[in-house]
């Protein structure tokens, strides 16, 4: 991903998570690979034209298996096309967005579930 694209993606992805859990969208291109009380590993394997409606992710680590372009749309309707490069990884803060694959892409997302504050 180009530096400008990475910066734009981080800005877009840094908005607070407000929408539904991505797995509640029931799209065929996102599957749960593993899950426990602290984290969940997802596979995003979208074909060109696949769309995911507005949804949220907690803090995540993302690894790009197969790069390509994805259109990311925020709750306010603004959209950006980001090019993800194969073999790259990045950390992302909580995010609420919709997306559309403009190319065939595959990513592995490790989501870190929010933990309840410790009781004193």
Summarize it.
This protein has 120 residues and is mainly beta.
Describe this structure in words.
There is one protein chain. The protein is mostly beta strands and 120 residues long. It has a single domain (3-112), classed as Jelly Rolls (Sandwich). Helix content is 9%, strand content 49%. The strands form two sheets. The protein has a five-stranded antiparallel beta sheet with strand order 1-2-9-4-7, with no helix packed on it. Strands 3-8-5-6 form a four-stranded antiparallel beta sheet, with helices on one face. A hairpin with a 3-residue loop joins strand 1 (30-35) and strand 2 (39-46). The longest helix is centred in the first third of the chain and has 11 residues, at 3-13. It is globular and about 50 Å long. Residues 3-18 have low confidence and may be disordered.
Number of domains: 1
Poorly predicted tracts of residues: 3-18
DSSP helical segment count: 1
Determine Rg (CA atoms, Å). Answer: 14 Å
Largest sheet: 5 strands, antiparallel
Mean pLDDT: 86
* Helical/strand content category: mainly beta
What is the CATH topology classification name?
Jelly Rolls
CATH class designation: Mainly Beta
CATH architecture: Sandwich
What fraction, in percent, of the residue positions are helical? under 10%
- The rounded distance between the terminal residues' Cα atoms is 44 Å
The run of helices and strands is HEEEEEEEEE
Strand order of the largest sheet: 1-2-9-4-7
Number of strand elements: 9
